[in-house]
Design goal:
Blueprint lengths: L2 E3 L9 H5 L10 E3 L7 H5 L6 H13 L5 H12 L10 E5 L2 E5 L9 H19 L3 E6 L3 H10 L5 E8 L5 H8 L6 E6 L3 H13 L1 H7 L1 E2 L6 H17 L7 E6 L4 H11 L4 E8 L4 H8 L1 E3 L19 H8 L4 H14 L1 E3 L2 H10 E5 L2 H15 L5 H13 L7 E5 L7 H8 L7 H4 L9 E3 L3 H17 L1
Helix pairs in contact: 3-4, 3-10, 4-5, 5-6, 5-10, 6-7, 10-11, 16-17, 16-18
Bound molecules: pyridoxal-5'-phosphate.
């Protein structure tokens, strides 16, 4: 399998090159050159497989000659071994025709672990094999950072620099990152929003000489391998609910559009999906876009579902690429427009194609809280605020007939104890290994939202390491 840039100009890459890079050199995102696809009878034959075995089958077409079948099996099993649930992603009944797909049983209690644990294994394999080292530079709205740090800590060929918006993530989220004192982990608290962190990381990647010199690598969902690993649980959920014969609807708490884009990929690969619901908090840029066809950036609002406090959903570029018949020049034009004018518009034809599969709605903090309260009172099921946005959105959109609906439960409620306590009057107890976080020593560098300052900081650490 080869990978092409969504902006059409960068060279095609192999899977291992895509794994070990960030943005394409033309500023685009890498996409598989063609969608592998499975027919319904093949998908049906997988319905008894354990999660890692299903993962191997779904991901195999994407990795090409990256590693042998035996090595791939070892990497996948190692990735899912730290999960504290045998199913990796158990499905729990919520209410009529509605299930929660619990994606938070990994080491950091958010769905990001599912992809990043695998990336950690694949990085290690690729780097050790070629005796190379990389610097991971990433931005996090909270959960990517800890999941990436957990996946890469103590892996000698990797240095990881993680930027988070100072004071804009929960205490647990911060401590999960800053309490990792491994010498290859470097936390940066940036004076700005998540979008500022993300913009800065993009600028660093676009600094070609810096990028080449230090071999920068992304763990954000701009990295194709993350999307790839997330495709698996759409198949998994469908197979648990009588699929692939019966199409199902997924409601996805959405920020950067990575998770839901994996749902689109599953659809392209032959999984019957009735609808993909883009569930947003007050940062409703995608809801407005689906109504009007205009993507227009407004200021980022802080909500009780902070991992979705995002305006610029990077992965939406991948969907535009698809909707534009994979016309990279078109995508490049739209993205330049977005950067220059804070907006772009798609024609009605493309918009109606998007609406055929996607719906979008936004849920405010009050509705989110009420959803947590009400679900807990009715069934004793405790949702975290992000997952609650997913459930509220599914109800608001109104799923037709008796089509099963799966809410992607993206975080453990204990990760957002304040919001959950306010809604349920119950303080979600931290699993034992997290309670010791509260007193643990932290290490973090606070920096201004300034490209040169951050770049120099990263370079000084990498240089020091080089001299050792
Ligand atoms: C990252 C995250 C999201 C948003 O996922 P995207 O792939 O960025 O759309 C939603 N909920 C939680 C808990 C997250 O950590």
């Amino acid at each position: 399998m080869h990978y092409v840039s969504s902006r059409g100009k960068a060279a095609e890459l192999s899977f291992s090159q895509v794994l070990l890079t960030g943005l394409a050199s033309d500023g685009g995102l890498y996409m598989p050159k063609a969608w592998p696809s499975f027919d319904v009878s093949e998908i049906s034959s997988w319905h008894k497989l354990p999660y890692p075995e299903l993962a191997i089958r779904v991901m195999k077409p994407f990795i090409g000659s990256f590693c042998s079948d035996a090595v791939f099996k070892k990497l996948v099993y190692k990735a899912y071994e730290p999960f504290n649930n045998f199913d990796v992603a158990p499905l729990k009944f919520l209410e009529k025709n509605t299930w929660a797909l619990e994606l938070f049983h990994g080491p950091t209690m958010a769905f990001k672990d599912i992809a990043l644990q695998l990336l950690g294994q694949m990085f290690d394999h690729a780097l050790c094999e070629n005796q190379r080292s990389i610097a991971i530079v990433g931005a996090t709205s909270g959960d990517t950072g800890s999941a990436a740090i957990e996946a890469c800590r103590d892996k000698a060929p990797i240095d990881i620099f993680m930027l988070h918006p100072n004071n804009r993530i929960s205490e647990i989220q911060r401590r999960q990152m800053t309490s990792v004192l491994s010498p290859n982990v470097h936390n940066i608290a940036l004076g700005g929003t998540f979008d500022d962190c993300q913009t800065l990381v993009k600028e660093i990647f676009n600094d070609t000489s810096f990028n080449k010199r230090w071999t920068l690598c992304a763990v954000n969902s701009i990295n194709w391998a993350r999307i790839m690993a997330q495709i698996v649980y759409y198949f998994w959920a469908s197979l648990k609910l009588g699929g692939p014969k019966a199409p199902i609807t997924f409601s996805v708490p959405t920020g950067n559009f990575g998770n839901i884009f994996a749902g689109y990929a599953a659809y392209k690969m032959g999984l019957p999906i009735h609808q993909l619901i883009i569930a947003s908090n007050d940062n409703d840029i995608l809801t407005r876009f689906l109504k009007t066809g205009t993507m227009k950036i407004s200021p980022v609002l802080s909500t009780i579902s902070p991992s979705m406090d995002i305006q610029i959903s990077s992965n939406f570029e991948r969907l535009i690429f698809e909707m534009a018949g994979r016309d990279g020049e078109f995508v490049a034009k739209k993205m330049t427009g977005l950067r220059k004018n804070d907006e772009f518009t798609l024609n009605s034809n493309m918009l109606s194609n998007i609406r055929k599969l996607f719906s979008a709605t936004s849920i405010n903090d009050n509705q989110t809280k009420n959803t947590v309260t009400e679900a807990f009172a009715r069934s004793g099921y405790c949702l975290d605020p992000h997952s609650a946005v997913g459930l509220a959105a599914a109800r608001k959109v109104g799923v037709e007939g008796d089509i099963p609906t799966v809410i992607l439960a993206t975080a453990h409620p204990a990760k957002f104890p304040d919001a959950v306590k306010a809604a349920t009057n119950v303080h979600p107890s931290l699993p034992p290994k997290f309670s010791k976080l509260l007193g643990a020593e932290e290490r973090v560098t606070i920096l201004d939202n300034n490209f040169t300052v951050v770049k120099n900081h990263i370079e000084s650490i990498l240089k020091k390491k080089g001299l050792q």
